Structure formats: C-alpha cells, structure tokens
User: What shape does this take?
Amino acid sequence: MACAGCGCVAAGGAGAHAIVAALREDDLDAALSLGLLDASQACPACSDGCRARLVAAREQREAALAARARHRVRTERLERRQRERAERRKPAVAPGIPGATAPALPAAAAAALARAKAKAAAGGKP
Assistant: This one.
C-alpha cells in the first residue's frame, strides 16, 4: 500500500501508511484502531515530513487523552467533595429515637441553658 502522505511504497511501512491514510480522511477512530498510539508504527522509508505528521498526530492524541483523564479525575474529586459537604451539612440523628434529630446545641451548652432557664424560672434566686 502506497503512503497517502508521501507516496512511499515500502512494504515494511504498511501499518504506518494505513494510519496516514486514515488521518488524511479525518477518520481518527480507524487511525486509533490501526495503532496510531503505538510508537513503533513508523515507516523508515517515508519522508521526514510524513513521519513528522504521524508523530504530531500521535502526540496530539496522547495530549487529548491525558486531558480527558485529568478532567475525569477533577470531576470525580469535585463530586466527592460535594458528597462530603452534603454529609457534613446533614443534621445529626439522635441515637435510639427514629426520626428525631439531635439537639442543635452541644451537650454542655444545652446543660448551661437548662440551668439558666431553671434559675430564671425560680425568680433569679441563687
């Protein structure tokens, strides 16, 4: 198969020639299935420009795949943070009482408030 990029007819570069042909037709899926990401897919008989275009296409695709991986990691991290934030904002549930929520105040503050209320109800006597 002759190279669509430079016209090379070397038999050892048939894989690279097929990839170049797929890239010229903008068929990235076919180029990937033919081995675009495989660095060993190169034809030593092709012109320097043809090999450079193949290497550039490979590097561009690798950069795009790396960006997609970074985006997925970022999305997972943001979703995890959102779940953790939602968990922290949930009201605490009182143990042993279904459907009841824990008091809004910590135990020490609730006890101090109860003493103050009792003192106020007693008329302020110590």
Summary: The chain has a mean pLDDT of 86. The CA atoms of residues 7 and 84 lie 59 Å apart. The chain has four helices and no strands. The longest helix spans residues 48-89.
